[in-house]
């Protein structure tokens, strides 16, 4: 028998094949002659007819044939594997029979608890050596991965659904409320967001200290309320713009926060502040003589001009400040309000001008709360749209404290001595907004 490298597969011709051809086997010895190498030649299992479809595995049978071979009739190696040291060691290390391995690999019923078990020793890295024979059934079961349980499949589906939902959740864009004014050059659509962003940043700088009356020795909160109530009547009589009234009150509060004033000069401060606001806002400015006449000639022209110089010097000529009016216009637009809601909102916020305690709220919060209170009063329930929340940057909870106070002012507006705002908004020109029912249900929240 010609042997070329006994360890190379496909290089040795099967002895049983030669016997079938009738080739004489004289001169070929087994057993004693091969004892010098302490090994036997391996056959090529690929050349044997009837080998299982897995080329790396053969059927385990007895390691010794029923009829032992001799010199003339050597033993056949068909269906057998020679016993080597490594193969014997692997058989010794096997911890369980093949039929136990197959039964352990069976799938458990759906819903039962599974525990991860380590691979049996027959499938360990040592067992998967080239000289180890593995049963075909074991080979199939080792490559069949266990199917996932129903709970695992549901968990996987839920995870995938959550990932899809997280991808779909995107930040909600701010509704566009300026597209309708794209062709209006006075609306400055290209810059309006930047303008109001600047107003929000600087509104605290244009506010008066909320407790400045404590520094005044001759005037009090009631005197301030009387002055503002009277100026609202003057503003209405002169038919001035809304911006003028809000700027007048702002100038008065900022000046009194920096300068002490005696009681008899308080009305002079009021008319002079209105004169400055008219110069800043109005196209047609009332003359000084008209203001002197409306104040029953209590002051002279020289006194008015002197007070004007003192106010602008104290305020450092800073008249461009954001008042509640500028925010009212923007927030009413975001709320998609009609004329009735607009008039009621301005009625509520003008009631706040008279009240000294409302100075603790910033102008943007006052405007947003007035719009929210008027909107809720007209609808009969609390209403604050997503667009309003995004454009005002105030949630409904942030507005409730200020809104409750506004409801109280709305309820008491027609009573007492300071009724200028109530009488103004009780006319048909202002839609009789003062006659509307207050939103009492906001007091209960």
Automatic annotation (TrEMBL):
GO molecular function: cyclin-dependent protein serine/threonine kinase regulator activity
Region (Disordered): 62-81, 91-124
Residues in Cyclin C-terminal domain copies: 322-439
Pfam family, one: Cyclin_C
Keywords, ordered alphabetically: Cell cycle, Cell division, Cyclin
Any one of the GO BP annotations: response to gamma radiation
Protein name: Cyclin-B2-2-like isoform X1
Species this protein is from: Phoenix dactylifera (Date palm)
């Amino acid at each position: 028998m010609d042997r070329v490298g006994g360890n190379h597969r496909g290089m040795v011709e099967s002895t049983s094949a030669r016997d079938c051809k009738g080739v004489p086997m004289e001169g070929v010895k087994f057993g004693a002659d091969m004892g010098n190498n302490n090994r036997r030649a391996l056959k090529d299992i690929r050349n044997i007819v009837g080998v299982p479809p897995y080329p790396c595995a053969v059927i385990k049978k007895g390691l010794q044939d029923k009829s032992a071979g001799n010199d003339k009739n050597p033993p056949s190696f068909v269906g057998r594997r020679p016993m080597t040291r490594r193969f014997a060691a692997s058989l010794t290390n096997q911890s369980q029979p093949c039929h136990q391995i197959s039964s352990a690999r069976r799938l458990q019923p759906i819903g039962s608890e599974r525990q991860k078990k380590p691979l049996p020793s027959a499938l360990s890295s040592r067992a998967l050596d080239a000289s180890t024979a593995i049963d075909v059934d074991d080979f199939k079961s080792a490559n069949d991965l266990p199917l996932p349980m129903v709970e695992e499949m549901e968990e996987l589906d839920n995870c995938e659904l959550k990932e899809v939902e997280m991808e779909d959740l995107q930040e909600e864009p701010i509704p566009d409320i300026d597209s309708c004014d794209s062709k209006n050059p006075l609306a400055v659509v290209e810059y309006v967001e930047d303008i109001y962003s600047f107003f929000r940043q600087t509104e605290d700088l244009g506010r008066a200290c909320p407790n400045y009356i404590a520094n005044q020795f001759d005037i009090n909160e009631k005197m301030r309320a009387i002055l503002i109530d009277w100026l609202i009547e003057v503003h209405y009589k002169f038919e001035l713009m809304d911006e003028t009234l809000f700027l007048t009150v702002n100038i008065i509060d900022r000046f009194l926060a920096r300068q002490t004033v005696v009681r008899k000069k308080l009305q002079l401060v009021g008319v002079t502040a209105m004169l400055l606001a008219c110069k800043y806002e109005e196209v047609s400015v009332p003359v000084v003589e008209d203001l002197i006449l409306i104040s029953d000639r209590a002051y002279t022209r020289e006194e008015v001009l002197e007070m004007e110089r003192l106010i602008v010097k104290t305020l450092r000529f800073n008249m461009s400040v954001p008042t509640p009016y500028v925010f009212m216009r923007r927030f009413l637009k975001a709320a998609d309000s009609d004329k009735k809601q607009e008039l009621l909102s301005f009625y509520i916020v003008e009631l706040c001008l008279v009240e000294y305690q409302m100075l603790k709220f910033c102008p943007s919060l006052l405007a947003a709360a007035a719009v929210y209170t008027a909107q809720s009063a007209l609808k009969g329930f609390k209403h604050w749209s997503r667009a309003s929340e995004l454009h005002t940057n105030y949630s409904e909870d942030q507005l409730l404290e200020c809104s409750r106070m506004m409801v109280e002012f709305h309820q008491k507006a027609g009573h007492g001595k300071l009724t200028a705002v109530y009488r103004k908004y009780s006319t048909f020109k202002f839609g009789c907004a003062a006659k509307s029912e207050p939103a009492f249900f906001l007091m209960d929240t």
